[in-house]
Structure formats: C-alpha cells, structure tokens
Design brief:
The protein is mainly β. The protein has two helices and twelve strands; from the N terminus they run αβββαβββββββββ.
Length: 256
C-alpha cells in the first residue's frame, strides 16, 4: 500500500512540474472550429479518390505545451461514401456494383510536433507560421447504409464503433492578434473491415450482419466479380481548414 501511495505521489508531482513548465512557456490555450471533407478507402474503393468526398466539420481544444509540442482534443462529425462504379479501371468492381454511405461521429486526442518556433517568446527567432506532423488515437461511431447489388436483399443498415490510429500533417499561421488559421490532412486507420459492409476474415469474403440483412459469407473461391477489394482494414481521411482563438495570461513578477 505504501509503495502504491509513493508511486501515485511521484506521478502527480511529475504532472505538476510538467504543468508548471507549460505555464512558464506560453500560458496559451486554443479553441477552434474546422470545416472540410472526408474520404474513404476500403473494399468498395481500394484506392484513394480525393474528389469522391463528403462534407465534415469539427471543433477542438489545443494546449501549446512547448514551442515544439502541442496536444489537441478534437470532435468531428461528417460522412464517407464509396461506389464500385467509381473504380472505372477495374471491370470486376463495375460488374459487382456495390455502394454505401455512412455518417461519422469521432473523438480523437493527438500530439503535434511543430517544426518552427511558432508564436513563442522562448527564442530570438519567432515565426508566424509552421508546418507540423501529428499522431493520435481515437474512437468513432459509424452509421452505415449500403446497397449490395449482388445480394438477394440489397438494402443494408448497421452501426459500428471502431477505434483508430491517426497520422497526418498540417500547416498553421498567425492571422492577427490572438487568431490562427490552419490546414490539416489526417488518415484514420480503423481496427475493423466492415465499415462499407464488405470485408475479409481468414480468407473469406464476408458481408456484415445487420437488422435488415442476416450474416452472409461468400467463399473466396467464388467468381472474382463478386469479391474484388482489399484485405486491409477500412480507413478514412479528414482534410480541413480551421480557425482558432488563443487564450493567454501574462504573469507579472512579484514586487520586491
């Protein structure tokens, strides 16, 4: 018990020191909103199609810990879609004719690394812009509606709640006073393969179960025009333009 208490006390002490260093750096918090688009990549559309997109919007809180590192918590609401007919170079996708659309509600926490000294007093060289990279982890709720053209009951609706890893790049710039604007592109690598209602498991092509369509499994040896796609889990991308406002507080030194 004493050992656990000591570990907890040391942990809180380290968090306290980290908080003090963050405060002494900038005293800056940001809140912002973003608008953009989402793209999907999976079994129905195994290649990235930048112009096959659905609108999305987000809101976020960012804490600038040091001149190089920031943390951000973000919520996003948007949509994704896919259509075999959009893969014009593959006759098997054209023959199958599956399509789907989905609504996404996600939450993500991410850490960002700024390449330049952006809005800082900790260096003689201060930039009013910087590129950055980020990585993060999050979860999402996805409501899918699909039309499975080669199935006896073509309508399909279901809900899934996958988690995901995120990687991406961004650019942000000081606008005026306490305002910033930014552009960001990030990929979401989910842990499931049935967002689009079609997936692979142990070499088997699978159609996800739903309230309107019972579970249907197709052997991989069936005709290829029924089973084109990829065995990699489904993923999606979020590209956005954002505007944020900085809150900061200046601490005056005590009188002597």
């Amino acid at each position: 018990m004493i050992i656990y208490y000591s570990i907890i006390r040391k942990t809180f002490f380290l968090i306290y020191l980290f908080t003090l260093s963050s405060i002494s750096y900038s005293q800056r918090w940001e809140v912002g909103v973003g608008v953009g688009i989402c793209n999907y990549k999976g079994d129905i559309m195994p290649s990235f199609k930048p112009f096959f997109a659905r609108p999305a919007g987000s809101t976020f809180i960012r804490m600038n810990c040091t001149r190089s590192v920031s943390f951000k918590v973000q919520g996003m609401f948007g949509g994704i879609a896919g259509d075999d007919k959009a893969i014009k170079s593959d006759p098997y996708h054209q023959a199958r004719g599956h399509s789907f659309s989905a609504i996404i509600l996600e939450g993500i926490g991410q850490i960002e690394y700024n390449f330049a000294n952006f809005r800082t007093t900790a260096s003689r060289i201060v930039n009013n812009w910087t590129p950055y990279v980020f990585g993060g982890y999050g979860g999402t709720t996805i409501q899918t509606r699909a039309k499975l053209a080669t199935i006896y009951n073509p309508t399909y609706t279901a809900r899934s709640s996958p988690s995901f890893l995120a990687l991406g790049i961004g650019f942000k710039k000081e606008w005026k006073n306490q305002w910033n604007w930014g552009i960001e592109f990030g990929s979401r690598w989910t842990n499931i393969d049935l967002i689009d209602a079609v997936g692979y498991k142990d070499g088997i092509v699978q159609i996800a179960p739903s309230s309107t369509l019972p579970s249907v499994i197709f052997p991989y040896s069936f005709q290829k025009n029924q089973t084109p796609g990829t065995k990699v889990n489904d993923m999606y991308y979020y590209t956005n333009f954002s505007i944020s406002y900085l809150f900061f507080k200046v601490h005056c030194p005590p009188r002597r």
